[in-house]
UniProtKB/TrEMBL annotation:
Keyword Magnesium found: yes
Molecular function GO terms recorded: metal ion binding; oxoglutarate dehydrogenase (succinyl-transferring) activity; thiamine pyrophosphate binding
Pfam family, one: OxoGdeHyase_C
Name of the encoding gene: OGDH
Transmembrane segments: none
Primary localisation category: mitochondrion
Occurrences of domain Transketolase-like pyrimidine-binding (ranges): 650-863
UniProt cofactor(s): Mg(2+); thiamine diphosphate
Family: Belongs to the alpha-ketoglutarate dehydrogenase family.
Organism the protein comes from: Scleropages formosus (Asian bonytongue)
Name of the protein described by the UniProt record: 2-oxoglutarate dehydrogenase complex component E1
Length: 1021
């Protein structure tokens, strides 16, 4: 709010005279660059004669004039001279001079002398027209600063101490005087206030500008770089008479306001001490959303995906999405029993999916509200991802049928960085949803913090400017203005397929929740709020006064809705059981049985036949487009791949290729997203080939597998983790029939997306009965690269697994699948390409979906031993949860002195060391590939096999990190607490790895020494 105080001062424009005195001098502080927000343009048009004060050329001259004011060198020298002369007083006919030859002195005696001082009336004419144009532009640029946006009037009353410099009495600032008010001025083409008239008296120009820009709507758009888009907006707000409503529209609006208001009142009456984060003070949100949906439906949208925070959520569920009222009311009953598995969530976080007829357009519409955590704005990218997926599956390439609406609180919109990350996805080819309508419930407070302490920008919406989204601020106490801007916002989205923001400036009638006392912290604001008449009452009185409705009709409307609520309340008492699945935001029809169970509890073999492997391998080593020149280094890589396929082997990249390729051929969409994933951070993947001779010509061999394959999407993302992982999670939410993978550049970067992992991926199913098969690829491994790129923090993921360390499961045939069904996510670290291949395919062949966390290798990508034979991938083969030691230890297991369990890359270091020490008979090394759910059955078989062996867990990570804390109690349970579990690895440490290469190698050698020193644990207890 305090920002507004300075805004008014800024409204004072720069007059041409002020600027022309010294165009190249630095601007005075009061005249910031924002006066001319468009980027400097470089006009080099030939000099014409001077009929520039009429028609479109005046617009052109105006543009050029602004450029010149910004930077005199940005225009042709002849224009520079012209503007200098004109501003120095030269009449139009005399202002033009031929430019001096290059290097000539513009300050030479000839210039200016001949032209200044003559024909003062024409001179005034030029100045006055330019001044009027400046005035019009000032309204367009900054009219919103003085629009009456705040229903409480606080921002103006308390903070605006600078004079307002537009209006009838302020024309002096523009070099005009009161006498000019009745002069007629030609209107530039950059305004539509004239309607059918091309010239108006200045008084009328100002009046119309005040009507367009300074009433209850404040339009922020002049930063948009596209002239057509600016013109479109000007037209929507400047044309005389644009904001007119039919009687029917007004009545509908009143009915919607009645529902919105009475719903909150009803909840307040029945459950006065329950938290519901009511909408009181912003009741016009409901007609706002309904307008956006109606208008979008009219424009062909069939599916709207919404994300929103707590404020007014129950009201939106009831009156926008139209969830049955009894389902909402019964949520307030504390005796309600939960019917579903999982821990559930509070009522103002649950999602919703509803398909119905839109009554205004009579068309089908599907509305879904995505469930969200308390973490504000975290749902934004998830909604976008789901929207993108819905568009993808219905072939809606330009977003005409599916769209998203995101709601925000003012404090969260300004404060949360994820908002910015999400905006930056909005125009990227593989992430765009072709325009989102954002609605901000700007109640001018966040919990107890007012905007002066909550943000450094004038508006909570300024973040949207980075993507050139127009921002419509509107006083939410004027429901007609609200509906008008929402219509324009929906039309904008339908026309330009770009984001747009509606900022509902309102207030919060109660505390943050209904139990809070707001007077503790905002006494003056709340004194004002107490005096504030409710918006429904104000609007009803307006319509009654206008004769649109009678008081009786209005009261009938109220009692009609109250009765609906009462009846639903009575019915809600019959509800005894809460089904969270009734609150599912993304049903997967056909994937489960009718009562929501998996269709089986088994997983078929994930192997492929030889021919299939060869076929995919051939594509992976070819360039399937004619006349396509690839880089020489890449040719060598492809040749290497061909040779590997020839010898029936795969490395990591080929294992992945086989998994993706086979799923695509089976009709499963595969989407791989993350930073630099197309080539692969470690330059091993190369899924997108670039023609070395033709700019932007690329080829994705994976899309050349077969004619009826599913499409493959591989996309380098923006440099964001939180936003992009959220997006992919949302994408994976839309359908179970896609393999959606997000790869971190290095595994440790996942913590930038911690909120998505902690709030959505880990507990998503438990909270919202919603499954998700997203795959996280997290490069991990101690390679001496320093503390930063070494650890993907397996300990964090393992600590959040829900399998019980102390319970040895009942061993049944379906244990492996049942364990997967019961877990909250799967954590693996594969040591072979074949196992990586299997686990990716298993993700889709399972009859349910679980998030899959894969710690992926770095040096193993090129390790000569980390290769797999086709034999490990043929029909009948499957993912190996544990790879037992199958070397010479098997010949005489009783002689084995030590059984080392490990996971991932350290296996290869251990095997090499064992070989060099000749200890193949005495030390067994087994790899736990699936860490969670823990393969108790297989591990038990292995420990039983080596009864004389000491059991050790070996990891290259530090003791307080990695897998040890997770694995140890499970190994203990497996051995019935009978055998000690020894630790081999680095000591506890604060950082994940040393920054010193030598120290790294010393540490590694030390742990290898311990691993093979058979008396290392003697005497230890
Ligand atoms: C990421 C995050 N940080 C903190 C909170 C705690 N919190 C809940 S509501 C709230 C204030 C939100 O203000 P605003 O966005 O303006 O929404 P309003 O409640 O005013 O509608 C805060 C700080 C949260 N929910 N999420
Ligand atoms: Mg707020």
């Amino acid at each position: 709010m305090h920002r507004l105080r300075t805004c008014a001062a800024r409204l004072r424009p720069l007059t041409a005279c002020q600027m022309a005195q010294s165009p190249s001098q630095p601007r005075p502080a009061q005249a910031p660059l924002r006066t001319f927000p468009q980027p400097t343009r470089h006009y080099t048009a030939p000099v014409a004669a001077e009929p520039f004060l009429n028609g479109t050329s005046s617009n052109y001259v105006e543009e050029m004039y602004y450029s010149w004011l910004e930077n005199p060198k940005s225009v042709h020298k002849s224009w520079d001279i012209f503007f200098r002369n004109a501003n120095a007083g030269a009449p139009p006919g005399a202002a033009y001079q031929s430019p001096l030859p290059l290097g000539g002195d513009l300050r030479g005696p000839g210039l200016g002398q001949a032209v200044v001082g003559s024909q003062p009336s024409v001179e005034k004419l030029v100045e006055d027209h330019l001044a009027v144009q400046t005035l019009i532009r000032a309204y367009q640029v900054r009219g919103h600063h003085i629009a009456k946006l705040d229903p409480l009037g606080i921002s103006c009353v308390n903070f605006d101490d600078a004079p307002v410099t537009v209006g009838f009495h302020q024309v002096g600032f523009y070099g005009l005087d009161e006498a000019d008010l009745d002069k007629v001025f030609r209107l530039p083409t950059t305004t539509f206030i004239g309607g059918n008239e091309s010239a108006l008296p200045l008084r009328e120009i100002i009046r119309r500008l005040e009507m367009a820009y300074c009433q209850h709507i404040g339009v922020e758009f002049m930063f948009i770089n596209d002239i057509d888009q600016c013109q479109w907006i000007r037209q929507k707000f400047e044309k005389p008479g644009v904001m007119q409503f039919t009687l029917e529209e007004k009545r509908t609006l009143l009915a919607r306001m009645v529902r919105s208001t009475r719903f909150e009142e009803f909840l307040q009456r029945k459950w006065s001490s329950e938290k519901r984060f009511g909408l009181e003070g912003c009741e016009s949100l409901i007609p706002a959303l309904k307008t956006i949906i109606d208008k979008s439906s009219e424009n062909g949208v069939e599916n709207v995906i919404m994300g929103m925070p707590h404020r007014g959520r129950l009201n939106v569920l009831a009156n926008v999405i139209r969830k049955e009222l009894e389902q909402i009311f019964c949520q307030f009953d504390s005796k309600l029993e939960a019917a579903d598995e999982g821990s559930g969530d509070v009522k103002y976080h649950l999602g919703m999916y509803h398909r119905r007829i839109n009554r205004v357009t009579d068309r089908n519409i599907t509305l879904s509200l995505v469930a969200n955590p308390s973490h504000l704005e975290a749902v934004d990218p998830v909604v976008q991802g789901k929207t993108k997926a819905e568009q993808f599956y219905c072939g809606d390439a330009d977003g005409k049928r599916v769209m998203s609406i995101l709601l925000h609180g003012d404090a969260a919109f300004a404060g949360q960085g994820i908002v910015y990350e999400t905006f930056h996805l909005s125009d990227l080819p593989s992430y765009t949803t072709h325009g989102t309508v954002h609605v901000v419930v700007n109640n001018q407070i966040g919990f107890t913090t007012d905007p002066r302490m909550a943000r450094s920008s004038p508006y909570p919406t300024d973040v949207a400017r980075v993507v050139n989204a127009p921002i419509f601020h509107v006083n939410a106490d004027d429901p007609e203005a609200v509906v008008y801007v929402c219509n324009v916002a929906a039309e904008w989205r339908a026309t330009f397929h770009k984001d747009v923001v509606v900022d509902l400036v309102c207030y919060r009638r109660n505390g943050h929740n209904e139990m809070d006392e707001p007077m503790f912290t905002q006494p003056l604001m709340y004194k004002q709020i107490r005096k504030q008449k409710g918006v429904l009452q104000k609007y009803a009185e307006k319509l009654i006064a206008e004769g649109v409705v009678t008081r009786q009709e209005y009261e009938e409307e109220i009692s009609k809705y109250d009765k609906i609520c009462e009846e639903a309340y009575a019915r809600s008492k019959d509800e005894k059981i809460l089904h969270i699945k009734h609150w599912l935001d993304s049903p997967w029809p056909g994937f489960f049985t009718l009562d929501g169970q998996p269709k089986s509890m088994s997983c078929p073999s994930t192997g492929l036949n030889e021919e299939e492997l060869e076929n995919i391998g051939r594509v992976a080593s070819s360039v399937p487009e004619e006349d396509f020149t690839i880089h020489g280094g890449l040719s060598r890589i492809l040749k290497g791949r061909a040779a590997m396929i020839q010898s029936r082997m795969v490395d990591w990249a080929l294992g992945e290729y086989m998994a993706f390729g086979s799923l695509l051929k089976e009709g499963i969409h595969v989407r791989l997203s993350g930073q630099d994933v197309e080539r692969g951070t470690f330059s091993h993947r190369h899924h997108v080939l670039h023609d070395q001779n033709v700019d932007k010509r690329t080829c994705i061999p994976m899309n050349h597998l077969s004619s009826n394959q599913a499409p493959y999407t591989v996309c380098n993302s923006s440099l964001s983790e939180y936003g992009v992982l959220g997006f992919e999670l949302g994408f994976a939410m839309a359908s179970p029939n896609a393999l959606v993978l997000w790869e971190a550049q290095f595994g440790d970067f996942h913590n930038m997306a911690q909120c998505i992992i902690d709030q959505f991926i880990c507990p998503g199913q438990a909270k919202w009965v919603r499954q998700n098969g997203i795959v996280l690829l997290l490069p991990h491994g101690m390679e001496g690269m320093g503390p930063e790129h070494s650890s993907a923090r397996p300990e964090r993921f393992l600590q959040m697994c829900n399998d019980d360390p102390d319970v040895f499961p009942k061993i049944t045939e379906d244990l492996p699948v049942r364990q997967l069904y019961d877990c909250n996510w799967i954590v693996v670290n594969c040591s072979t390409p074949a196992n990586y291949f299997h686990v990716l395919r298993r993700q889709i062949l399972l009859p349910f979906r679980k998030p899959l966390i894969i710690f992926t290798p770095k040096s193993l990508l090129r390790h000569p031993e980390a290769k797999s034979s086709f034999d490990e991938m043929l029909p009948g083969t499957h993912f190996q949860r544990m790879i037992p030691d199958d070397g010479s230890t098997c010949k005489n297991p009783g002689a084995v002195k030590r059984l080392i369990f490990c996971t991932g890359k350290v296996y290869y270091e251990l095997v090499k060391e064992r070989r060099s020490r000749g200890m193949e008979d005495t030390v067994a090394i087994s790899r736990i590939e699936q860490l969670s759910p823990f393969p108790f059955d297989l591990v038990k078989a292995e420990t039983d096999k080596f009864p004389q062996a000491e059991i050790a867990w070996c990891q290259e990570e530090h003791k307080n990190q990695g897998y040890y804390d997770y694995v140890k109690p499970r190994l203990r349970t497996t051995t019935d607490q009978a055998r000690p579990i020894w630790y081999v690895g680095r000591d506890p440490a604060a950082a994940p790895a040393t920054g010193n290469k030598k120290a790294h190698l010393v540490e590694l050698q030390r742990l290898l020494d311990t691993a093979f020193k058979l008396d290392a644990f003697k005497g230890h207890s």
